[in-house]
Write a structure and sequence with these properties.
The protein is 56% helix and 3% strand. It is mainly α.
């Protein structure tokens, strides 16, 4: 097989694995991480704890139809410039595996990480905002701007929407589906929950107004917003 083809095939596969893992790690270990433990991390701890706090606040706003209690565009829905920097730091650490396997020099590696961080933020800011049915444009001062409806159409979006919906609709310790725009690592780390949720046990033990809605159901294409 052509060496160039092998090189770029390997490069693309490793890049996707890197991005999917970084997304899974950011979402499961930081956004859903322990705020006190995150705050103790040197240099970036306070910023990470703030990110976790904002994300949990975001979850509390999401209703069982995936719309927000207050349908307003705010920084709990999108990646701010600060979050983009956090993403680039995590990518640069995990990306060393790609760097040494692809034999990338330092300059190319910095450009590579910067490009991936920006591309991932563009995907998140466009897809995640639309997933919750929120209209509005992110200001350049707040983060990478979005365009409503740019990427929220077609079978791939419907798949991602249902995937992410179960992350919100499943309550308690059974929460999973931590990938949002780049599926993959949930299957590997055993956190894939499919398109159905069951809050029977959670609602039995916890008072939550959302338990008055469907306790056990599956999401379909008809639910997509």
């Amino acid at each position: 097989m052509n060496r160039t083809l092998v090189y770029y095939t390997k490069f693309l596969i490793l890049t996707y694995v890197l991005c999917s893992f970084t997304e899974w790690f950011l979402h499961s270990q930081i956004m859903h991480g322990d705020e006190d433990k995150l705050a103790n991390i040197p240099f970036i701890g306070k910023a990470l704890a703030k990110t976790a706090q904002k994300h949990i606040e975001h979850h509390k706003e999401v209703n069982m139809n995936m719309r927000l209690t207050h349908e307003q565009l705010h920084n709990k829905l999108f990646f701010s410039w600060e979050t983009l920097i956090q993403t680039s730091i995590v990518l640069s650490i995990f990306g060393l595996f790609v760097k040494y396997n692809i034999k990338m020099d330092n300059t190319k590696y910095i450009i590579y990480i910067a490009y991936l961080s920006l591309l991932y933020t563009i995907l998140w800011n466009n897809i995640h905002v639309d997933m919750h049915g929120v209209k509005g444009t992110i200001r350049i001062n707040d983060g990478v701007p979005n365009k409503n409806g740019l990427l929220s159409r077609g079978p791939l979006y419907r798949f991602l929407w249902k995937y992410h919906a179960v992350h919100h609709l499943q309550k308690g310790d059974e929460k999973g589906n931590y990938n949002i725009v780049l599926p993959g690592m949930d299957y590997i780390f055993g956190t894939y929950n499919g398109f159905c949720y069951d809050n029977t046990e959670y609602c039995r033990k916890n008072y939550d107004s959302r338990c008055h809605d469907k306790i056990k159901a599956c999401v379909t294409d008809n639910d997509v917003i």
